[in-house]
Specification:
By secondary structure, this protein is of the alpha/beta class. It has a single domain, classed as Alpha-Beta Barrel (TIM Barrel). The strands form two sheets. An eight-stranded parallel beta sheet has the order 3-4-5-6-7-8-9-10, covered by helices on one side. Bound molecules: NADP nicotinamide-adenine-dinucleotide phosphate.
Length: 275
């Protein structure tokens, strides 16, 4: 449990591998038929030692947040020993809507603060000055410890960076062995040079990770699965953390353990040349 690798920016330390909670509790709306499977996954994650949970007001219509809150309360973990990221939906970026959205997330989690609050997606025609007036207020009021964004390209990231009264902690974007879009558009470089974490989402391509000879050979050499190698590759990058999702307790443990895999620079490069 004590072995998880971390990244530290602005004196805030996050584990290299956290738990993504999209589809926990349902897809676009709450699906109580998934509660038992969802709680089993969250309990497995807590038992394995995950401390960072990534959710959003839109996940399962808010039910993902409710189940995370429930699983953490039941585990007896102290609030300060977990790190909760949630996100405000792109249709809620007006001043009052941001404040209401955050209050809703806290109510569903039954918590009095979020560790990290992200703008989920850039909105169309968003007035970011207005959005950040609300986000900055949430930080000043102690409802949110840190701010970040998600799915922001380099231009937009630089634009909103100036509007945040506290350093933006992360840009959460897709990043995997097969998806380098945010490497190619300069976001990864920029984050690495500016003390911003890149939180890699869909790190195993939503379960559709394609196998290939290089992945298989490296997996064999490390006595690991190709999924674990794909995660180890993602987090081999400085300033990159990730949040794989799984319902399967064995996969949940394997994903956590993937942080311990040390790839050689030759292995990292051989995967970097694939696509
Ligand atoms: N900010 C955004 O816009 C955004 C967008 C997408 C995702 N996210 C966040 O990122 C998290 C992760 O992304 P994701 O859920 O899209 O995709 P993902 O983590 O790449 O893939 C999840 C899928 O991979 C399978 N899987 C996971 N680990 C495995 C393993 N070790 N072996 C075999 N199969 C494995 C899971 O199936 P099993 O259940 O069978 O293990 C599940 O179907 C989300 O939950 C969410 O928190 C954010």
């Amino acid at each position: 449990m004590g072995n998880m690798k971390h990244e530290t920016v602005h004196n805030i330390t996050l584990p290299k591998i956290g738990f993504g909670a999209w589809r926990i509790g349902g897809n676009s709306s709450s699906n109580p038929a998934l509660d038992s499977k969802s709680l089993t996954a969250l309990r497995s994650a807590l038992a394995a030692g995950y401390t960072h949970f990534d959710t959003a007001e839109s996940y399962a219509g808010g039910h993902s947040e409710e189940l995370i809150g429930q699983a953490i309360r039941e585990s007896g973990m102290k609030r300060e020993n977990v790190f909760i990221t949630s996100k405000v939906t792109e249709s809620h970026l007006k001043y009052d809507h941001v404040l209401t959205a955050c209050a809703g997330s806290l109510r569903r989690l039954k918590m009095d603060y979020l560790d990290l609050y992200l703008i989920h997606w850039p909105g169309t025609g968003t007035n970011y000055e207005e959005t950040f007036r609300a986000l900055n207020k949430l930080v000043r009021d102690g409802k949110v410890k840190h701010l970040g964004v998600s799915n922001f390209d380099l231009k937009l990231l630089k634009q909103v960076q100036k509007l945040s009264e506290t350093p933006l902690l992360t840009n959460q974007v897709p990043f995997s062995v097969s998806d380098r879009s945010y490497v190619e558009n300069g976001v990864l470089d920029y984050c690495q040079q500016n003390e911003i974490l890149l939180t890699a989402y869909s790190p195993v391509d939503q379960g559709k990770l394609r196998s290939n000879k290089a992945l298989e050979a490296i997996a064999k050499a490390h006595n690991a699965t190709i999924f674990q190698i794909a995660l180890a590759w993602v987090i081999s990058h400085p300033r990159v953390i990730t949040i794989p999702m799984s319902f399967n307790p064995q996969h949940i443990q394997e994903n956590f353990d993937a942080a311990e895999i040390e790839l050689t620079s030759q292995e990292i490069n051989s995967l970097a040349n694939l696509k």
